[in-house]
Amino acid sequence: MALPKIKICCISSRTEAYQAIDAGASAIGLVSGMPSGPGVITDPLIREIAAATPPPIATFLLTSFLETADILAHAKITQTNTIQIVDHISRSAYPGIRENLPGIKLVQVVHVLDETSIIEALAYAEVADALLLDSGNPKLSVKVLGGTGQTHDWTISRKIVEQSPVPVFLAGGLHAENVARAIETVAPFGLDLCSGVRTAGNLDPWKLEAFFRAAGY
To answer: What are the residues whose beta carbons fall under 8 Å from the beta carbon of 18, sequence distance 6 or more?
Structure first.
């Protein structure tokens, strides 16, 4: 079985981007303005990091915008090669986004709350290039759209992986001590993490090395 792709999120500088890539990451996450959560940086800095990231590394813009025009404007400003939509947008928005962003991959986040998340994920799988299953909660008064450091029910995520026609990333509370179990339980295409490889908010080379080793690299 192929090793899962690993995306290191909450990248805050070119130095962190290179650190993650050198450790083995095939993607980096760049967090723009969010209602809550860690890792937010400015859009000009996102553009700078994305421009300095060599191919074939995927650069994910994490956007919380819901309207097509806002997402398109955000993509134009930041110039990443992947857009990660962290909130629940209308599926009808996808054709307009895709038409205006040729060559840009669209990844839809689904926050796994209960069995209804399976229905939601499979609906998005019809329009997105990939899914990312996280542990936030967009239904709260202050939305939590990622960066919780908490796991969710992986048995639900496994059901989504088994039925999804597109690749699925697993996020939420991953670290060196649980990643092997996560891979065995969920069998995701990719893994996405932030706090699990950080100390005092900064990327920790020892935690990075331990995570990749535990993931089978």
So the answer is: none
Total-model pTM:
0.94
Q: Tokens 């303005």 label which residue?
A: 33
Extract the residue ranges of the chain whose pLDDT is less than 70.
1, 137, 140-145, 147
Q: Report residue 25 as tokens.
A: 């990451």
Q: Which CATH superfamily is domain 5-206 in?
A: Aldolase class I (3.20.20.70)
Q: Are 86 and 63 in contact (CB under 8 A)?
A: yes
Domain ranges in the chain? Answer: 5-206
Q: Which residue is associated with the tokens 């239904």?
A: 139
For residues 129 and 162, give the distance between their C-alpha atoms in angstroms, rounded to a whole number. 16
Predicted local distance difference test score (pLDDT) of residue 148:
73
Are residues 143 and 182 in contact, defined by beta-carbon separation less than 8 angstroms?
A: no
Query: Residue 137 and residue 167: Cα distance in Å, rounded?
Result: 22
pLDDT at res. 118: 97
> For residue 33, what pLDDT is reported?
87
